Automatic annotation (TrEMBL):
Residues 240-260 have a biased composition (Low complexity). Residues 98-236 form the Bacterial transcriptional activator domain. This is BTAD domain-containing putative transcriptional regulator. SMART domains: BTAD. Residues 239-260 are annotated as: Disordered.
């Protein structure tokens, strides 16, 4: 292996002298490295800027920043690999080993001329799709290049595995892992699965072979692909060869057996749609047969050896019979049957991903785009509840493609629900464009009187803008979300008023209006016996702002329970986060550390946003408080900074600065407070500005810098009468040694 290795198959990986290097958190920086590595020529800065950045982002500055991060990865003492001047950028790869380049080089030499050991070594290096997780679909030129490279790499790897399986067929135990890899790579390739079935039969593993046969036929059918028959031939040939000519195969129906008819035929048709997992209760319900008729039909099917009962339940005796029955159903009837199954599955709550996948499959096979889109929404929400964020994102993206086919308001409303799932599943790559798209959908929903969805759209846009520090925009969208529901039903009014009050409390804007709005929502909810997590979340934030910690804690605990019960995982995290802040303000670091454990577990299972880095940094802060070990906290702040979560970063920096000050580390306290102040000013957060200025003033005072101390103190005094939290005002008075104002604890 060369001194520097770049692996592009799977997630990007850089290895130097056998050690895997930590990568820059920026996806664009990682994407730039891969692009430069495969271009193998100088590229103009204009081209690279247009490829990965947009004009409002200061593309040239972003490119310079990314290049500075990449130099640390690829340049070594005495060797400069990344060469850049005023006009262009080039990566020298002559002394680098790149897995995808090696893969294509093997094909150029001719696979038939490469020995098996080298082919096996090359196959083992494949870790997944090219640049997995770095698609950047909002940057069309890069996205197109990435997809083309991914397709080429998949074709090359599939050809490599096919050659290996063919070459090693005489040693099935050695060929089997390659066949499994081939099928994973190309699940719809009938030839690949046929080879796998042959190898499993050769190794006397008929049960696994049958499972692969059933799965392969099902995938081919669901994808609407023509079957070449190779999979069925692979299953039949060895069995026929092993059966003496004078004996009948135990899986074949008796020659005298007639074709299924009447109720039996109807049950078998439904079974073909449900195969391989057949449940008699489901069969009876969708086939419309009462118990006695269903039992008689199943009895005939078992007597004729069409169905059999195994340890795993009811199954087709011959998997190919299910395919034949399915193919014999007319297309119109088939769609109607899939619709019936989808509607039946949608009637009951979903509890696992298999149910969600079945619902989506039958809804799509029904040919009804709206039914299929609603199934994607249902499946996506279940995935969020189960922390299957990648699957939720996949369902939402598929649903958005279908929603585009649905004309008018119905398509717009479904698209808004899908955007909500996408936001909860993963951080948005181009959040400003996505917020604008959501607002446009909300406007169209409002125009046609779809008030609940209009509220959802404006509320979602507010959350997106708030998460990225665009607080003025978040403020306006939150108020609009409340306005549009004034003529809506009571439930929508309660949600809109509570969510808007919650947003205003987070923004520290119009707090009197927020309190009045929340009181109205609370009264209406009590009269109508309505419950929603936004009510206690908003109540908790307002109590926290008013320095009523005990009341705030009770509300946040209520919110956490409601969010957990409703599957709102982001809301659950935010409630726990607020409880953590209360623990930190009470200086109860032992309780805070315990809560951080819960937050870390939840954050790791949530989307790839700032939640997990915040939880890790908060846990390191508690370690600093309890053990006086500040090192892990500084390390933990790095990913939080890259997550661009200014508010969360400011909160933790201020807590750490308070600890620094108490332990006499004045320079560190001032540095952390200054960084927190910068973030708080960008976010227009008066509470954090006041805390930062008071810490800076005290640090300067203790260091003997009277001028700086007075300057910071005056700036803090200018904020003290504004809309700052009561607990922050109290802490400021205590820190400055001033008496509490009237009404302050």
């Amino acid at each position: 292996m060369k001194a520097l290795t770049l692996n592009l198959l799977g997630e990007l990986e850089v290895i130097r002298d056998g050690q895997v290097l930590p990568l820059p958190p920026s996806k664009k920086t990682r994407a730039l490295l891969a692009y430069l590595a495969l271009q193998r020529r100088a590229l103009s800065r204009e081209h690279l800027c247009a490829l990965l950045w947009e004009l409002p982002d200061d593309p040239r500055g972003s490119l310079r920043w990314s290049l500075s991060k990449l130099r640390r990865l690829v340049d070594t003492p005495g060797r400069t690999r990344l060469k850049a001047d005023r006009l262009g950028v080039e990566l020298d790869t002559t002394a680098m080993e790149i897995d995808v380049v090696n893969l294509h080089a093997l094909h150029a030499r001719g696979l038939e001329r490469v020995d098996s050991a080298e082919l096996e070594a090359a196959a083992a290096r494949y870790r997944g799709p090219f640049l997995e997780g770095l698609e950047l679909d909002n940057f069309h030129d890069f996205h197109g290049w990435c997809l083309a490279e991914r397709e080429a790499a998949m074709r090359a790897q599939a050809a490599l595995l096919a050659a290996l399986v063919e070459r090693l067929s005489e040693t099935p135990e050695r060929a089997l892992p390659q066949a499994h890899a081939w099928v994973r790579l190309a699940p719809f390739d009938e030839a690949a699965r046929a080879h796998l079935v042959r190898l499993l039969l050769a190794l006397h593993r008929p049960r696994e072979a049958e499972q692969q046969l059933q799965l392969g036929m099902r995938l081919i059918r669901e994808a609407g692909l023509p079957s070449s028959g190779e999979l069925l031939r692979a299953w039949r040939a060895p069995r026929h060869a092993a059966t003496p000519p004078a004996e009948a195969s135990p899986h074949a129906p008796p020659e005298a057996a007639s074709a299924p008819q009447g109720d039996t035929l109807e049950v078998l048709r439904w079974a073909a749609l449900l195969a391989p997992d057949l449940d008699p209760a489901t069969l009876g319900r969708v086939a419309g047969l009462e118990t006695n008729r269903l039992g008689a039909a199943l009895e005939v099917a078992e007597q004729r050896r069409w169905l059999t009962t195994t340890e795993e339940g009811l199954r087709f005796t011959r998997p190919e019979l299910a395919e034949e029955l399915y193919a014999a159903i007319s297309p119109a009837r088939r769609q109607a049957m899939h619709r019936r199954l989808a509607e039946w599955l949608a009637e009951a709550p979903l509890y696992d991903l298999d149910q969600a996948t079945q619902l989506v499959h039958h809804a799509q096979a029904s040919g009804d785009a709206e039914l299929a889109t609603r199934a994607m929404i249902t499946a996506g929400r279940l995935c969020l509840r189960l922390f299957a964020n990648q699957q939720a994102q996949h369902f939402a993206q598929r649903g958005l493609a279908l929603a585009g086919e649905i004309a008018g308001t119905r398509g717009d409303c479904l698209a808004l629900e899908l955007h909500d799932i996408l936001y909860c599943a993963a951080p948005l790559a181009d959040w400003e464009a996505r917020a604008g798209e959501v607002v446009a959908l909300a406007e169209r929903a409002l125009e046609h009187g779809a008030l609940a969805h209009a509220r959802l759209g404006y509320q979602l846009a507010s959350h997106i803008r708030w998460a990225h520090g665009q607080w003025s925009g978040a403020h306006q969208e939150a108020l609009q979300a409340e306005r549009v529901t004034r003529c809506a039903d009571d439930r929508e009014q309660v949600i809109a008023m509570a969510e808007t009050a919650r947003c205003l409390a987070m923004l520290e804007r119009d707090l009197e209006q927020a309190a009045a709005m929340l009181a109205q929502a609370r009264d209406l909810a009590a009269r109508r016996h309505l419950h929603h997590p936004a009510l206690p979340l908003a109540e908790g934030l307002l109590c926290l702002h008013a320095d009523r910690f005990d009341a705030a804690e009770a509300h946040f605990n209520d919110a956490r329970t409601l969010c957990k019960a409703s599957g709102d995982r982001l809301g659950e995290f935010q409630a726990q986060e607020s409880l953590l802040l209360i623990d930190l303000e009470r200086d109860d670091h032992a309780r805070a550390r315990q809560r951080c454990g819960e937050l870390c577990d939840l954050g790791e299972r949530l989307r790839d946003g700032s939640e997990a880095p915040f939880a890790a940094a908060a846990e390191a802060l508690c370690r600093y408080a309890l053990e006086d070990d500040a090192g892990p906290f500084g390390v933990a702040l790095v990913p939080l900074r890259h997550a661009d979560a200014r508010h969360r970063l400011a909160v933790l920096l201020l807590q750490a600065a308070r600890l620094d000050l108490a332990r006499g580390r004045l320079e560190t306290a001032a540095a952390r407070a200054a960084e927190a102040l910068e973030h708080a000013r960008v976010l227009e957060r008066p509470t954090e500005q006041l805390l930062a200025l008071s810490l800076l003033a005290e640090a300067a005072h203790r260091a003997g810098d009277r001028e700086a101390g007075q300057r910071h103190a005056q700036a803090a005094e200018a904020l003290i009468q504004g809309p700052v939290a009561g607990w922050a005002r109290r802490r400021y008075r205590a820190l400055r040694g001033a008496p509490a104002a009237e009404g302050e604890a």
